[in-house]
Amino acid sequence: MIFNKETAKKTAEVLLQINAIKLSPKEPFTWASGWKSPIYCDNRIILSFPPIRNYIRETMGKYIEKQYGKPDVIAGVATGAIGIGILVAEYLGLPFIYVRPDAKGHGRKNQIEGFVESGQNVVVVEDLISTGKSSLNAVKALKEVGINVKGMVAIFTYGFDVAAKNFEKENVLLHTLSNYENLLEEALETNYISEKELKTLSEWNTNPSEWNAN
To answer: Comparing C-alpha atoms, which of 94, 155, 90, 103 is closest to residue 122?
Structure first.
């Protein structure tokens, strides 16, 4: 769920401004999964715009304290949320760790990088939620070593039903700065998209795996 409407609209606005989110209903993107999509989100570009990254850092940091209280550690999900996670941890004056998709095959063979102790409270930072599987994989790795995961905060979610079900199944609380619904509202209000394109974008979101631009 979003923290509030005002933040969701503002976050959508800045993501569109810097093309972190691109909407292209007429010429869809192809995701790594093979899905055809009229939207592509790359929040890593936020790091290249100091005013925007400061807004995300401070907004996310404040909401983490308000929602979860101050945790012991901030954890980022590799690789997309490492940069944002570090910024949030720095803003809150907290240690930072990050979680790989899998343990390394060499060296210390870590999946969790950085210092964290069993029993500590952690809030996980993520940049983007699609199905939620990779994000929840990070949560699982933390729980397996005795970490208390208080919840997850992400910049943006596509709002897929499957993601909501996955987070509910794993009993993980998720909050996001913005979501697909507010993104479309902002895009329409600022004439980034037309009413016709809005219809296409809304149709995709209800069944993304089967959607076809034609």
So the answer is: 94
